Amino acid sequence: MIKSISGDKVLWGIFALLAIFSFLPVFSASSNLAYVVGRGTPWGYLIKHFIILSIGFLLMFSAHKIPFQYFKGISILMLPIVILLLIYTASQGTVIGGANASRWIKIPVIGLGFQTSTLASVVLMIYVSNYLSKSDKNIPNFKSSLLRLWLPVFLVVLLIFPSNLSTAALIFLMVLILSFLAGYPMKYLLTVCGVGLTVVILFFLMIKAFPGVFPNRIDTWINRVENFTSGESADGNYQVDRAKTAIISGKIFGLGAGKSRMKNFLPQSSSDFIYAIIVEEFGLIGGVGLIILYLLLLFRIVVIAHNVQTKFGKLMVIGLGIPIILQAFINMGVALQLLPVTGQNLPMISSGGTSAWMTCISIGIILSVSVKKEIDKNDEIKDIDEQNPISILSESI
To answer: Quick check: helix, strand or coil at residue 99?
Structure first.
C-alpha cells in the first residue's frame, strides 16, 4: 500500500497528522451531543469519525492516482450536475428558527446528509482553472468570458448565497484570485465585483421590502456582525463567550486530553468551535502547534504550485488548496473572536462528512499534480492529454 502512494510525501504526512490528531478533540467534544443533547455516545461518534476519515483517505488515494489533466473534462461534465444539485437543494425550503437552512440533501438508501456547496466549490475551482489556463492563447475580456466563465460562477454563488453567505463569499473570492493570477484584465475584474455587489444589494433590498417572499438568513447575518462589533455579552454572543472561556482556561499547557469543561456548555463544540476545545485541553502549545501544521500545509501547496509546469496545474493547486487554509484560519478566527461567527468548520479536525470528503478529494488532486513524472516531464503530460478521451471536450469548450 505504502509503495503505491505517490506525490508529495510531506503533504501526505501533514494531512495524516491532522487526521490522527482529530480523534482526540472529536471524541472529547462529542460528549456535548451524547449527554447534553442526548444523541448517541462518544464512542459512537468516534467510530463515525473514523469511518468518515477512512472513506476520505480512500477518495484521496483514488484521486491522486488520476492524471491531473483528466480533471479538465471531469469538471466540465460535473458542472451541470452540480448546478442541478444546488437548485434541488435550494428548492427544499428547509427552515431552522425562521432562517434558510437549505444546505443539505439526503443520500437515498443510506440517508446520509450531503452538503452540495462543498462539491460545487471543488468542481467550480477546477472548471475555472481550466478556462483561465487557456488565456495564454488570447487575452480574455468580459464579453467573451461572460457565458463560459462568469455565468457558471454567478449561478453557483447565487444558489449558495441565500443559505450560506460565508461559503458563497469564499468561492467568489477564490475565483477572483485565480482570475487575477491568470492575468485576467483588472478592469474586467472590477466590473465583475461591481456586478456582484449590485446583486447583493438588490437581494438585501428585496428581502427588506418583501420579507415573506422566501426564507433567508439576513437577520442572522446582521445579528452576527452586530454581536461581533458590539463585544457585549448578549444572547447572540453565547457561543463566542463560551469559546473564550475555554481558551482562557487552557493557559499554556491545557487541562489535558478529554478534560475540557466547556465542551458541555459550548454549542457546536465538535464542529464550528472545536478549536476552542483544543486550546482548552492542549493549551497554547496545542493551539499554536495546529496553526503551524496548517502553515506547513500552505507551504507545501505553494511549493507544488511553483514546481508544476502547466498553467492549469498551478491554478488548480491554488484554487483547491488555498480555500482549505482560509477555512481553517476563519474557523480559528471565529473562536478567538477575531471574526464574526461564520459556520465554517476546521478542515480534517471537525466532525462531519461532506466537508472532510471534499477536502480529501482536493488534497488528492493536488497530490496528483505533485507527482514527479507529471511535473518534470512535459512530454508525458502531452501523452496523457492525447490518451485522455475527455480532453477533446475540455479543449473545445
So the answer is: strand
